[in-house]
Write a structure and sequence with these properties.
about 325 residues, alpha/beta, D-Maltodextrin-Binding Protein, domain 2, 7-stranded mixed β-sheet, 5-stranded mixed β-sheet, about 30% helix, globular
Length: about 325
Amino acid sequence: MKCIQKTLALFLAVLTVCAALGACGTQAAGSSGLAAAPTSVRIKENARVSYLGPEGTYTEEAAKYFFTSGLFQPKASVPEALADLADGNADYAVIPQENTLGGAVTNYVDALIAGKDIYVIGEVILPISQTLMGLPGTTLEEIQTVCSHAQGIVQSAAWRQEHLPNAVTQEMSSTAAAASYVAESGDKTIAAIAAPGAAPLYGLEILAENVQITDSNKTRFYVLSSSRLKEEGKAQTQALFIADCPAERIDDIIVRIHKSGVELVTLHDRPEGSALGRYRYILEVTKADGISDKLIAKLETVPELRCLGSFNVRIKSGGKP
């Protein structure tokens, strides 16, 4: 009997040790910082897509280019579009990320970084043709104020200096919001810089086309999801990483990225907020033959790096980015 009791006690002890080891193993895997491999899916048809509105923005154009159908939900701000994802009121969101002339749209990048469980699953590169519009019958000589999104103001600076040197600018939440404001004002001294499609939408007249500095003007838009997804049956050629580190570390991280066989597409820095010289770097990378889950896992062994998704780029007619 004593022999049986000893054997049973020994067996229970072994089970206890195994359970402890298993728990340690689970904890180690969970604390490694490695994201779970993305789920391979088809992009949902007739999806609910929230985007920076109102109707008539370039973001709407990018959303409708990526999604051939769906319920498109214009929002007053990027945080509102991202909140729809978090609350389950949207399947996807589309936000601007970077412009050829205006650079990174920093407040939108900050919103992306601050969001929880938000992943990039696609990118659209859209040619931007900024258009000056006003009430029907308006002449350039009458214009005293030009309103637009901050990017539209930056992109049209040279044209305005030549053609509207005395006009002041007024920043709006979006180019379409500027067009709507002009339409509602009934004031011929106010004009908007917006996408060409905003003119008929808001009953305005196009006063000048292509008022941006260059015909090479393009904007990148990210397509976002609350789950880490990748398009089924396609190699993902891009990936987005966040590096949270002091400035002196970023060179080493870039070298690690380069040695892994991928190349940088964009690099932006945003203040981390806790100390001078500490930043959150946004790194988009590319690899022509595809970025595998294994490669992403390898890069995420760098303590400061975390992946926000792998995806492909869709370029609307207008050439290479």
